[in-house]
Amino acid sequence: MPVTDVTHDLDARTLTIVADFAAPPKRIWEVYADPRQLERVWGPPTYPATFVDHDLAPGGRMNYYMTSPEGERYYGYWEVDSVDEPSGFTFDDGFALDEQFTKNTDLPVSTNVYTFVEHDGGTRATYVGTYASAEALQAVLDMGVVEGSSAAINQIDDLVAE
User: Is there a cis peptide before residue 35, judged by omega within 30 degrees of 0?
Assistant: First the structure.
């Protein structure tokens, strides 16, 4: 499994996931740069994602929804801050209320830094999410973000091996 470490720090308000892939950073970058590939790995296997909008550029917005096994849709968005192809990007990740991707201000937003660096002939990806408060981080931990994110990231190996 690619995920090698998961830590959270309530004092620093961070969740950090580290994963190692047997593919170069450029290939891991391509997963995030292509909405059709990203759909295959964003969200746990039983909650596939659909990206309605995908603009991985500074100031860009990416709107998506995940579909539950029962057909319920859960909406979210990314607001892209910076891009350093193929080394990574930064963005805010939030929950949305509806198919218009209206921000849900009742749920936490995370500021994320994704980095992809060469490591042992492949890529070490580090995913760091920072929350506004320890309570916000705890809320997403209680929602299963560690399990869901790990299951999602672990799908990348199969995709890049195709």
Answer: no
